[in-house]
Task: inverse folding
């Protein structure tokens, strides 16, 4: 049975004919991208970040990404609701979100509060790790409970596609900004964070060298979890790559010596 194309409004005001076409990838063969977002968001964001979608699916993926990162929180008519994002302070992984009144006080850092926004952003767990099944399970469960009243609500193909077809469920064409945040939340809101080992590998230095740069005030990192482990914003690592790369080419900068 042939699918009926959808119509979406682009940022330029043009109407796009958009049909959700089945995928040919072995893992999710026959499913459409709206189905994949609810069933396996980790996989979708991996594929999107690595530009693995091609042709028509690449166009659809752009539309899905735009919507999946700006889901409008449903209001009950009494007060504006917001989403508080948390990380697990022990594992330093994404913990989940809590939806409540905007007038409620900023949460205590019992589960390490990150930030508060007026949208649900499904891309957040991947900013902690490339593989984040438990974090996504919690996030999708909260999303389903918020819109459908149950974490176990069955998302059929029709329900998944209807959700992403409904423009009223998304904040489109606007920059999402935090209502309040923590220091680490400000970083995560705008950047990907890396472990010390990951950052050191990219910089081709030892973790000890990276730690020394941090202690000297030459490199910025955020402290997280038990014991204050360091996490590195990707933009900071890229900045260091430029400085360290110049040093390796013979441009004098004793501050970035690896000895």
Result:
């Amino acid at each position: 049975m042939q699918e009926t194309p959808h119509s979406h409004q682009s940022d330029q005001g043009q109407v796009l004919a958009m049909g959700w076409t089945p995928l040919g990838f072995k893992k999710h063969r026959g499913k459409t991208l709206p189905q994949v977002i609810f069933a396996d968001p980790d996989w979708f964001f991996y594929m999107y970040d690595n530009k693995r979608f091609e042709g028509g699916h690449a166009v659809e993926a752009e539309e899905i990404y735009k919507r999946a990162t700006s889901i409008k929180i449903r209001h009950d008519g009494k007060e504006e609701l917001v989403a508080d994002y948390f990380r697990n302070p022990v594992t330093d992984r994404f913990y989940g979100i809590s939806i409540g009144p905007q007038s409620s006080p900023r949460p205590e850092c019992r589960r390490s509060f990150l930030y508060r926004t007026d949208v649900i952003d499904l891309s957040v767990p991947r900013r902690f790790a490339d593989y984040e099944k438990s974090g996504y399970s919690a996030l999708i469960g909260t999303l389903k409970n918020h819109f459908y009243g149950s974490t176990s609500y069955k998302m059929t193909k029709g329900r998944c596609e209807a959700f992403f077809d409904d423009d009223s469920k998304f904040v489109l064409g606007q920059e999402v900004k935090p209502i309040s945040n923590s220091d680490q939340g400000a970083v995560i809101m705008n950047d990907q964070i890396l472990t010390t080992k990951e950052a050191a590998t990219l910089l081709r230095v030892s973790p000890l060298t990276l730690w020394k740069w941090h202690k000297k005030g030459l490199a910025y990192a955020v402290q997280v979890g038990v014991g204050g482990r360091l996490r590195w914003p990707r933009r900071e690592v890229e900045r260091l790559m430029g400085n360290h790369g110049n040093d390796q080419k013979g441009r004098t900068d004793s501050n970035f010596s690896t000895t």
Q: What stands out?
A: The two ends are 67 Å apart (CA to CA). Residues 133-148 form the longest helix (16 residues). The chain has nine helices and eleven strands. Confidence is low (pLDDT under 50) at residues 1-17, 248-259.
